[in-house]
Amino acid sequence: MDESQKKRLYWQLPFLALLIVGTVFVIRQSHVMPYQHAEDFIFGTTYQITYQCDIDLGDSIKSELMKVDQSLSPFNEKSVISAINYNQSAKPDEMFLEVYHQAVAISRETNGAFDITVAPLVNAWGFGFEKGEMPTPRQVDSLKTLVGYQKLSLVNGLIHKDDPRMMIDCSAIAKGYGVDVVANFLRSRGVENFMIEIGGEIVTQGVNPKQHPWRIGVTKPTEDSLAVGHELQTTLNVNNVAMATSGNYRNFYYKGNKRYAHTIDPHTGYPVQHNILSATVLAKSCMVADAYATSFMVMGLDGAKEILKKHPDLMAYLIYDEGNGDNGVWFSPSLKDRIDQ
C-alpha cells in the first residue's frame, strides 16, 4: 500500500466509524421507541391504530378523522355531503372533491357497479343513513331514476344534481379514505411503523411491535349479524399496502324467509344475489381498495376477474359460494406470496 492509499484510508476511517455508530443507533432506537395505541369510534364504526412514536398522537389522529367526518359523513347533519344531499348551499372542500373524483373514475371503470348516487335505494332497503322499509317493485323503479353517477357534475366548483332528490353516500369509499388520511398524517410526523384499521379497512407500513411484517386475517364469511365471529379463512401479509374487505355476511336481514343483504346493485335496484360472499382487495390506497371491494360484490366473480385483468396494480382474495353448500376461494396470482399457508 503506497503513501497516498494510506492517507485516503485514514480519511475514510472516521466516516466509516460514524456510519457504523449511526446504523447501530437507528437500530437501537427502533427497538427502544415505544408503540402507541389509539382507538375510538368514528364513521359509525370503531378504529384501532398502532404506531411507533415517542409521543402520543391520539388527539391529532382523532382531529384528522373528524375532518373527514365533517366532509363526508351523511350521518353528520352539518357535514358537506349532508348539505349537498339536502340542497343547501355548500362548496365542496378538498377532501370531498378528492373522494368524488376517485369515485367517478371507479364508477366508469366498473360500468356503474360502484356508484355513490345509490343512496336512495340503500336507504329504501333499510341500510343507509335514512332508514326505510322494504320497497315495492314500483318504488324501486321510481328510485332508480335518481341513481346514476353520470347525473352528477361539478359546475363552477359546486356539485350539480340532475334531480334535486338525488342523494350521495360515500360510505363504500370514505372509510378507506379516512385510513389514507391518517396514514399520510403519521408519515408527515416521521412515523415509519404503523397499522391503521377503521371498520375493517387497513393500511400498514414498516413492522409491528415484534419487528415482523404486519399480517391481517381474512374472516370466514359466515352469517354473523352481531359481528362476534372471528374464525379466519386465511392470513395475509399486508406490509406496506392498503387492504379493504366487503361482504354481505354481517349486515343483512330476513323477511318472508328471504335474506336481504346491504350491498345494492345500482343497475337493478335490489340487493345483490351474486356468488361472491366476501371480497378482499389490496391496493396502493385504501380508498381505492375500499371502492373496488364493494364493486366486486356487485359484479360477481366473473366481473371481478375482468376488472383485475385490466388493473394489475390491484390484488384480490375472493370467497364465493360454489352452489353446493361449500365455499370456494379465488385469488390474484400476484397475491400468492402474501398468503400464509
Give a verbal description of the structure.
The chain is an alpha+beta fold and 341 residues long. Helices cover 36% and strands 23% of the residues. An 8-stranded antiparallel sheet has the order 1-2-5-6-9-12-13-14, with helices on one face. The N and C termini lie far apart (55 Å).
**Could you tell me the strand content as a percent range?**
15-25%
In the sheet with the most strands, the strands line up as 1-2-5-6-9-12-13-14
Question: What characteristic shape results from the CA principal axes?
Answer: globular
Largest sheet: 8 strands, antiparallel
- Count every helix, treating DSSP H or I runs of 4 or more residues as helices: 8
The helix/strand series, from N terminus to C terminus, equals: HEEHHHHHEEHEEEEEEEEHEE
Notable features of this structure?
single chain, 341 residues, alpha+beta, 8-stranded antiparallel beta sheet, globular
Task: Briefly say what this structure is.
With 341 residues, this protein is α+β, with helices and mostly antiparallel strands. It has helices at 3-32, 58-72, 80-85, 94-109, 119-124, 137-144, 171-188, 286-310, and strands at 35-42, 45-52, 152-155, 158-161, 194-198, 201-205, 215-219, 232-237, 242-247, 252-255, 258-261, 276-283, 315-321, 327-331. Strands 1-2-5-6-9-12-13-14 form an eight-stranded antiparallel sheet, covered by helices on one side. Strands 3-4 form a two-stranded antiparallel sheet.
